[in-house]
TrEMBL record:
Organism: Bionectria ochroleuca
Subcellular compartments: Nucleus, Nuclear pore complex
Keyword terms of this UniProt record: Coiled coil, mRNA transport, Nuclear pore complex, Nucleus, Protein transport, Translocation, Transport
Protein transport as UniProt keyword: yes
Protein name: Uncharacterized protein
Keyword Coiled coil belongs to the record: yes
GO molecular function term, any single one: structural constituent of nuclear pore
Stretches the record annotates as Disordered: 336-357
Residue ranges the record marks as coiled coil: 247-310
Main location: nucleus
Secretion signal span: none
GO terms (BP aspect): mRNA export from nucleus; protein import into nucleus; ribosomal large subunit export from nucleus; ribosomal small subunit export from nucleus
Basic and acidic residues: bias regions: 336-347
Length: 437
């Protein structure tokens, strides 16, 4: 058991050690501007109900939200870790990270005489997540969005309950704005009567009922009264100017809303047809609009069909057996017409034989024309020989061809020519139709 002397020595050591200890300044955060700083005002800290690393700072100028979450979890993970490699680098990152700061509410006056009550944060299922504070004249409430929570989805069996029909939202042609609160300067009483009452009970009460005389005491009384009235009139002037400014803003907003309402009205009248000056009835207007819509639909259908045909021609598809046979036939005819090589020899009578079917069409046509010319020459020569024999200039007898044989030969040649000509014309017409496709 230690003696009293030793106890006092231990107490002095503990006191010395407590005096020598210092707190580590990790980060400095400004919650107000230099203009708002006032030595008579002290901040009040309030905790958040959602996170222990969030807090609210309340002072005479406003309410500030601070969050240490950006770096506190890093620091906790670093302190709980066992790895020492790269510790300096990671600690440097933690030191350089900044806390979240947000100015939630700013008091218009920013006067230390009008303080703000300490903020209280509440989370209630019925009311919600909000912050509550107050001034000497009015309450202050800020509603926050509730944080998302993980909900357990329960699978419900299908029921015969009919689903509710969706109700169309009303027309929203206005913009919400905060409610204007007049300045509390209009509700504050004047301090001049209080000053006069204090003057009546002071040692200079005799000056109240006497005539005004030039003296230092009178000058001091008038100076104090002037300061008091100047302060009150200044506050009233600022409040009145704010009311005047808000009235002008209200007129502009009201004018804008009236214009928007007129635009909505004109659209409704255009749709309903109430603004028509031609005297057309509603049924006639509806029928006209339906007819115009049908015409427009027909035009669109024709355009779609045209585009479909163009796309069908542009796209490649497999040919059928008949189409392939037709193309082969066209290709064969084209090759037979393009071959313009001259060939000599051959039997003239091959046009009527089986071997003539394998010759090109153009060659068969040329042979038929040549045969026709030769036969015509022979006929002319025979006619000339008959004329000479009849005149008696020649005594020798010539070989005569009977008329029926010559007539049959000529008919045969003309039939072949007409047949070949018809075949060539048919092929030409078919090629022209193919080129137009």
């Amino acid at each position: 058991m230690a003696s009293p002397k030793s106890k006092s020595r231990l107490g002095r050591l503990l006191a010395d050690s407590s005096l020598s200890s210092e707190l580590l300044a990790f980060q400095a955060i400004d919650t107000m501007s230099p203009v708002e700083v006032n030595e008579e005002s002290w901040p009040v800290f309030s905790q958040d109900v959602m996170s222990r690393y969030n807090l609210y700072v309340t002072h005479h100028a406003g309410i500030v939200f601070l969050s240490l979450a950006p770096w506190i979890f890093r620091l906790e993970k670093e302190l709980a870790g066992d790895s020492e490699a790269g510790t300096d680098f990671r600690i440097g990152l933690v030191v350089n990270s900044q806390s979240s700061r947000d100015r939630l509410f700013s008091q218009p006056t920013s006067d230390a005489v009008v303080p703000l009550a300490a903020a209280v944060v509440l989370q209630d299922p019925d009311v919600g997540y909000f912050l509550l504070s107050a001034t000497p004249y009015e309450p202050i409430a800020l509603t926050f969005d509730s944080p998302e929570t993980d909900l357990v989805l329960v699978k419900l069996e299908s029921s015969p309950v009919r689903e509710l029909e969706a109700v169309p939202a009303p027309l929203d042609f206005y913009e919400p704005r905060p409610v204007f609160q007049p300045s509390h300067a209009f509700d504050q009483p004047s301090h001049l009567p209080t000053m006069l009452d204090r003057l009546r009970t002071s040692r200079h009460k005799t000056l109240v009922n006497q005539e005004v005389r030039l003296s230092p005491v009178t000058l001091g009384i008038f100076t104090d009264a002037h300061k008091l009235l100047a302060d009150e009139t200044y506050r009233l002037g600022v409040a009145a100017s704010e009311v005047f400014r808000r009235c002008e803003v209200l007129q502009a907003e009201l004018r804008q809303q009236v214009n928007k309402a007129n635009q909505v009205r004109s659209k409704i009248e255009t749709i309903s047809g109430a603004n028509r000056d031609d005297g057309e009835g509603d049924n006639a207007a509806y029928e006209r609009r339906i007819a115009e819509a049908q015409d427009r639909q027909d035009r669109l259908t024709k355009r779609v069909e045209g585009l479909r045909k163009i796309i069908g021609k542009a796209t490649t598809r497999d040919l059928s057996a008949k189409e392939r046979a037709f193309f082969n036939e066209v290709r064969t005819i084209e090759e037979s017409l393009s071959e313009r090589t001259s060939s000599e020899g051959g039997d003239r009578n091959s046009l009527t034989g089986a071997s003539g079917a394998s010759k090109p069409l153009w060659k068969r046509l040329e042979e038929a024309k040549t045969l026709q010319d030769e036969l015509l020459d022979e006929v002319a020569a025979l006619k000339k020989a008959e004329g000479v024999t009849d005149s008696g200039s020649l005594g020798t007898t010539e070989l005569r061809i009977p008329q029926d044989i010559r007539r049959s030969k000529l008919q045969q040649v003309q039939g072949l020519l007409s047949r070949e000509t018809a075949l060539v014309e048919a092929v030409r017409a078919r090629l022209e139709r193919l080129q137009t496709l």
